[in-house]
Amino acid sequence: MPRFWRRNRHWLTPALFLLPGLILFSLVIVAASVETVWISLHDWDGIGAKTWVGLANYVELADDPQFYVSLKNNIIWLLIFMLAPPIGLALALIVNQQISGMRILKSLFFVPLVLATVTVGVVFGWVYDPTYGLLQLIFGLFGVTAPALLSDETFATFAVAAAALWPQIAFCMVLFLAGLNNLNEDLIGAGRVDGARGWRMLRHVVLPQLSQVGFIAIAVTVIGALRSFDMVAVMTTGGPYGSSTVLAYQMYEESIFSYRFGYGAAIATVLFAIMISFIAWYLRGLIKAERSNA
C-alpha cells in the first residue's frame, strides 16, 4: 500500500481532495436533476403514489398560455441582465483607479452584493410605491403622478428585472475587479512601449486578459436571469394576473399551491434544458475563438 501511494500520489492526492465535493455535487445536483426528469413523467401530488403519464405533462405545457408568458418574461430578464457585464466592467475600470476617495466609492458599489435578494426586493418595492416611494418623489418634482409599475401588466416584469439588475451589476463588477488585479504587468508595459493608450490599451491588452472572467460573468448572469425567483416572489408574486411570472416561479406555484409536482418538474426540466443549451453553445463558441487565436 505505501508503495502504491508513492507511485500514484501525483493524482491520488488531488483526487482525494476533490472526492467530497464530487460526492456532494452528484447527490445534490446530478441525482436531483435525474429525479426531477423522472418525476416530470408522472402525475404526482407530492404525497401519494406516482402515476406514469409519459410525456403528457410536456404536451400540456406546450398548450399552456401561462408557460409562454413565463418564457417571454425570462427572455426579458435575460435581455435586461445582459447589461450587467458591460456596466460591471465599466464600474470596475472606474473604481480600480488610484484616486483619493475611491475606496469609499468602491465600498458603496459593494453594498448591493452583500444584501439579501429579499431585502433588495423589499427596498425596490418601497421605491416603486406610487404613493410615497422615491419614484413618486421624483415624479412629484415635475407635478405628475408616478405610475404604479408593479400593478401594471406591461411594466411589472421590467420593474422587477431592473431591481434585480442592481446586485447583478455589483457581482460582475467584483469579478472584473479580481481580473484587473491579476493582469500581466509585462504585457501592459509592452503595450505602453508600443504606444497603446486609452481605448487601444483596453481593447488590445486588457480585455483579452479578461476573457475568462468575462465568460464567467456572462454565464452566471444568464443563469441568474433564467432562474429568477426571489424578486418575483417578493415584489409581485407573479402578478398582476400572472403577467410577471417566470418559469421558476410558475414551477413553484404548480408544485406547491396546485400540488402538481409532475407538471412543475416538467417546467423545471425545460428550464434546465434551456440553461444547459445556452452554456454548451456559449462554451463551444469560446473554445472555438480561443483555438482560432492560438
TrEMBL record:
Q: Which GO terms describe its biological process?
A: transmembrane transport
Recorded GO cellular component terms are: plasma membrane
Identify the domain of life. Answer: Bacteria
Span of domain ABC transmembrane type-1 = 70-284
**Keyword entries, A-Z:** Cell membrane, Membrane, Transmembrane, Transmembrane helix, Transport
TM regions (residue ranges): 12-34, 75-95, 107-128, 134-151, 158-181, 201-224, 261-283
Query: Topology relative to the membrane, per the entry?
Result: Multi-pass membrane protein
Q: Which PROSITE patterns match?
A: ABC_TM1
Q: Where in or outside the cell is it found?
A: Cell membrane
Q: Which InterPro entries match?
A: ABC_transporter_permease, MetI-like, MetI-like_sf
Q: Which family does it belong to?
A: Belongs to the binding-protein-dependent transport system permease family.
Q: Report the protein name in the record.
A: Sugar ABC transporter permease
Organism for this UniProt entry? Mesorhizobium hungaricum
Instruction: Give the lineage.
Output: Bacteria, Pseudomonadati, Pseudomonadota, Alphaproteobacteria, Hyphomicrobiales
